[in-house]
Amino acid sequence: MRIFGRVRHRPSPTWRQATDRAFSLIGDGRYEDAGALLTRAADMEPWLSESWYNLALLHKFRHDWEQARTAGLRAVALLDRDSGAPDWWNLGIAATALQDWPLARRSWQAYGLRLPSGSAESASEEAVRLALGSAAVRLSPEGEAEVVWGRRLDPARIEVLSIPLPSSGRRWGEVVLHDGVPHGERATAEGSAKSVYPVFDEIELWAPSPVPTWLVLLEAASAADRDALERLAADAGFAAEDWSSSVRLLCRTCSESRMPTDDGSATSRDPHDHGEPGHPGHLSHHSAGSLWVPERECGIAAPAALVRGLLDSWIADSPDTRDWRDLEEVC
Questions:
Q1: Are strands 283-284 and 258-260 parallel, antiparallel or unpaired?
Q2: Which of 44, 218, 230, 263 has CB 3.0 to 4.6 Å from 296, enough for a Cys bridge?
Q3: What is the domain range of residue 10?
Q4: CATH code of the domain containing 73
Q5: Confidence label for 253 from pLDDT (cuts 50, 70 and 90)
């Protein structure tokens, strides 16, 4: 087979050595040095799709989306198979980061995904939208990682539906770009059936949310009182989450495996967790057994003009069993 006038063959030992060394450097975070080696490898074997795939991957790690798109296009031009190549998936991520929707559509379709049909004009102007259901995303995977629940908008974007802790720097309603390979799963049980959801790693923030995060201490006599605040916030188009019961601390190994949500039973709230290095054990913030603790640490995602009104309305519905104090904007 001839490509660009050259007979295609297996990459040379020098190419393999340069590539292997480059990925060792990537693992150490030495992207500049790795880039020099991968560029040299592409110069040695420019007719290999792997040369350009590796460069596109490096640019993805660096969040250099223009370069990732350029290298990705060269990689897919040299592919010798019709669909399913990871080259197309990485190109789809780069195109999504750049909001290059025609290229994103082309990439997902070439990978083998079915996309909704539409006019050519709308396909050129509108974002890719697919009904891919729920998933979890690990925010800040290289730092103080936190796994939250969200809704997949397309193969590379998730809208955050949990209220992240302030340490993550993320807000409810934000859209994050995520990688294609899941790291871990979350399992929920509903009756006799069990649903398993992938956990994807965040790459970067794709669309910020204007809605601030508030921390408030509640006095809720029962779980029903707490649930009433969550419903009230949801009815207003925003969110409240009882962090005292929904947050748990996991080691990194556990976080990247299949974990049940809370005790594995179905709940009205999707718990999120922190993936920490080492193996300190499982620390849960919810009350043990059936014992209810009235004082709750709650996160609220709502505009400043609305949050106090929400809390006051919540109290007004049952003043003998509810109270709040120490409201603070935290993110």
A1: unpaired
A2: 218
A3: 2-125
A4: 1.25.40.10
A5: low
